[in-house]
TrEMBL record, chain A:
Compartment annotation: Cell membrane
Spans through the membrane: 97-116, 122-144, 151-176, 196-216, 284-307, 313-331
Chief place of localization: membrane
Membrane in keyword set: yes
Name of protein: Iron complex transport system permease protein
One Gene Ontology cellular component: plasma membrane
Gene source species: Krasilnikoviella flava
Family of the protein in this entry: Belongs to the binding-protein-dependent transport system permease family. FecCD subfamily.
GO BP of this protein: siderophore-iron import into cell
Membrane topology (UniProt): Multi-pass membrane protein
UniProt keyword list: Cell membrane, Membrane, Transmembrane, Transmembrane helix, Transport
GO molecular function: transmembrane transporter activity
InterPro entries reported for this sequence: ABC_BtuC-like, ABC_transptr_permease_BtuC
From TrEMBL, chain B:
Family: Belongs to the binding-protein-dependent transport system permease family. FecCD subfamily.
Protein name: Iron complex transport system permease protein
Pfam families for the chain: FecCD (PF01032)
Cellular compartment(s): Cell membrane
InterPro entries in the cross-refs: ABC_BtuC-like, ABC_transptr_permease_BtuC
Keyword terms of this UniProt record: Cell membrane, Membrane, Transmembrane, Transmembrane helix, Transport
A GO CC term assigned to this protein in UniProt: plasma membrane
One GO BP: siderophore-iron import into cell
Record organism: Krasilnikoviella flava
A GO term for molecular function: transmembrane transporter activity
Length: 339, 356
């Protein structure tokens, strides 16, 4: 059931999604155009759709297209995952990076490389998923009790502590083993460039599944926002909704981290932007947040290419540089409101 | 010397000629216990290591005799233990000061990102020595300390400015600290990806916090910072005690609250950053040590001096443990593994209290 005003707003919000999708398309195009060598939009489109054979075309199809697609997928996943985490924990600071889910995935990968000496992409993905799942479950269990003002802060502290704890293990493995260091040093800084496309193809179905689950979870999440008792009386299966939420967050954050390394703050920023436009209904917030997340990651990645020549700033670092100030702004609000 | 009558439960008056002191039994017992741990672990640290040396040879070497190898080995062990003690004391004292001023157990320099901010500057010097040498015309090693302390102070100033909004808010400070910490870590990771693998391995190890690279001169110069710092804590003790009751009460007790807060914070940041310059950001010691001291000494708030003593013992224990593992780990990994669950415990307990 949906309250009448929601139904009335629906066309507006559908329009909003269309606008967001248009912005996303523009961001995609910019990502293909901008880099150490600027390529005009016409040439980009020609390279994509016509069979052109030029240096520019090669750059577009072999270099920029893959990283743009990875950025798109990562942004969609992290944006949706962040919205789910903020909804389920009812904490405006929830973010897979800040709350230790990414650290859990990194921990899983480090254990794999260090203990088992395995570096196969499929195994890395699996290990990252497993680590993310454990961390997400832990946080949800802790977070569900934390619904009041001070508890909001404590949950953020819990998350960062969990990240520090798992990070200590990861760091220990890295220090003990040069092979692990070599894998983790670059993986540890989230980036969408030069990522293994076979690994991406491997996790794509999982990420899509996560995205679908996240979208399906939106309705239940909205009624859960009224409190578990009210949600139950509205006919929401509370336990099922929570489990779906955990699985979706794990799939989304785990797959992204497995391919790109930990990218923080997307999941923090995107839902806040989405909420500005989409209101309080998670059926709209989740898709809007996914689209915003994709735009944010694409813009961050594109900016990172040109902001510090001759090198590049990885998107993980760009997101921290952009996202940490956003976190600061959120905390500077007069009251830290619970969601 | 004669023990006087008991003035309050657990408190004894000790008279020594014209001087009379009120002594809390608990504090005496706790002090003795911490000293015992320190001496015990120091003995273990001197006796164990990659090269097995019998007790008598260690004693001979300590006395300045014995073979060159023995003297070298024992000398290095002693130096490493000294580094652990001095760094631990600086961190413990620093944490107690910040926890007292902010009246928040979580607000310690390592969790708020002060040490991370300080290490940004240290890593900058460590991975780009050529730039530093070109810009300043001095060898990079000589400016690491100054750069780190400067970085710590800048980070702390940033924290305070950002968490100021219509008055000071301890919770906001923690959240801002988490953000600043993430920001500083991102910058450090970026610097590391730009470095050669060799120096990245060094910097990585250095970033976790390790006593491996601490040289005698570094430890000595940290001691020169830490000792006056600890003495300043003795001077500040009364005022800090008043501050624990809140700035308003402190003011009504005749304490200049603002000045004391600023002084204590600057002292805390300098101590923590100076320690970071020597061993890197050893996590959680500054957070845990005062909290252990608070419970062991049963004081009203986190005690700076007892915090320093516990910090010294804690770091020495952690490093000796880390060294005795089959593959020696840097001490920072071990302190995180111990400190993080303690923080989780404190946080969940406060969650439960908020809910109940």
């Amino acid at each position: 059931m949906s309250p009448p005003d929601v139904r009335r707003r629906a066309p507006r919000q559908a329009l909003l999604l269309v606008v967001l999708a248009a912005v996303l398309a523009a961001a995609l195009l910019l990502s293909l155009m901008i880099g150490s060598r600027a390529i005009p939009a016409g040439d980009v489109l020609a390279a994509l759709f016509a069979d052109v054979d030029s240096d520019d075309a090669t750059v577009v199809t072999s270099q920029r297209l893959p990283r743009t697609l990875v950025a798109l997928a990562a942004g969609l996943a992290l944006g949706a995952g962040g919205a789910l985490m903020q909804g389920h924990t009812r904490n405006p600071l929830a973010d897979p990076g800040l709350f230790g889910v990414n650290a859990g995935a990194a921990f899983g990968v480090a254990v794999l490389v260090f203990v088992l000496g395995v570096q196969a992409p499929a195994a890395i993905v699996l290990a990252a998923l497993l680590g993310a799942g454990v961390a997400a479950t832990l946080l949800f269990v802790l977070g569900l009790g934390a619904l009041r003002g001070d508890a909001l802060v404590m949950l953020a502290v819990l998350g960062t502590t969990l990240a520090a704890f798992l990070g200590a293990f990861t760091q220990g493995f890295v220090l003990l083993d040069r092979q692990t260091l070599d894998v983790m040093r670059f993986w540890d800084v989230g980036s969408v460039a030069g990522r293994d496309l076979s690994a991406t193809a491997l996790v794509l179905p999982l990420a899509v599944a996560g995205l679908v689950l996240a979208l399906l979870n939106g309705g239940a999440l909205s009624s859960l926002g009224l409190g578990e008792d009210v949600a139950r009386s509205l006919g929401t299966g509370v336990l099922r909704a929570r489990v779906v939420g955990i699985v979706a967050v794990t799939l989304l954050a785990g797959t992204t981290t497995a391919v790109c390394g930990p990218i923080g703050f997307v999941g923090l920023v995107a839902p806040h932007v989405a909420r500005r436009f989409a209101g309080h209904d998670y059926r709209w917030i989740v898709p809007a947040s996914a689209l915003v997340g994709a735009v944010v990651v694409l813009v961050a990645d594109t900016l990172g290419r040109v902001i510090a020549p001759p090198g590049e700033l990885q998107v993980g670092i760009m997101m921290a540089l952009v996202g940490a100030p956003v976190l600061l702004v959120i905390t500077r609000r007069r009251r830290l409101v619970a969601l | 010397m004669s023990a006087g009558r008991t003035t309050a439960p657990g408190v004894a008056a000790v008279r020594l000629g014209p001087v009379a002191l009120r002594v809390r039994r608990r504090a005496v017992v706790a002090t003795l216990a911490v000293l015992l741990v320190l001496v015990g672990v120091l003995t273990v640290a001197l006796l164990t290591g990659a090269l097995a040396l019998p007790v008598d040879r260690v004693l001979v070497a300590l006395a300045g005799q014995g073979s060159g190898v023995e003297q070298l080995v024992v000398g290095r062990r002693l130096q490493r233990a000294a580094a652990a003690v001095v760094v631990g004391a600086a961190l413990g004292c620093s944490g107690a000061l910040t926890q007292t001023v902010t009246r928040n157990p979580i607000a310690s320099p390592d969790i708020l990102g002060v040490t991370a901010g300080a290490s940004v500057f240290a890593v900058l010097v460590a991975v780009r020595p050529d730039v530093v040498e070109g810009a300043l015309g001095v060898p990079p090693q000589s400016v690491v300390g100054v750069a780190t302390v400067l970085g710590g102070l800048l980070t702390a100033a940033l924290l305070l400015v950002l968490s100021q909004r219509g008055g000071f808010d301890g919770f906001r400070l923690v959240l801002v600290g988490i953000g600043v910490n993430a920001l500083a870590l991102a910058v450090v990771s970026w610097l590391l990806t730009r470095a050669e693998l060799e120096s990245a391995a060094v910097a990585q190890r250095w970033l976790v916090g390790s006593l491996e690279g601490a040289t005698g001169t570094e430890v000595a110069s940290l001691g020169l910072v830490a000792l006056p710092g600890l003495l300043a804590c003795v001077v500040l003790a009364d005022r800090l005690g008043a501050l624990r009751l809140g700035p308003e009460v402190a003011r009504s007790l005749g304490v200049r609250a603002g000045g004391t807060q600023v002084g204590a914070l600057v002292l805390a940041v300098v101590l923590a950053s100076a320690a970071t310059a020597v061993v890197g950001p050893v996590a959680f010691v500054a957070f845990v040590a005062p909290q252990i001291a608070l419970r062991a000494f049963r004081t009203a708030g986190p005690p700076p001096l007892a915090g320093a003593a516990v910090g010294a013992a804690l770091l020495l224990v952690a490093d000796t443990l880390a060294q005795s593992l089959p593959v020696p780990l840097p001490v920072g990994v071990l302190t995180s593994l111990v400190g993080a669950p303690f923080l989780l415990y404190l946080a969940t307990r406060s969650l439960r209290r908020t809910r109940g």
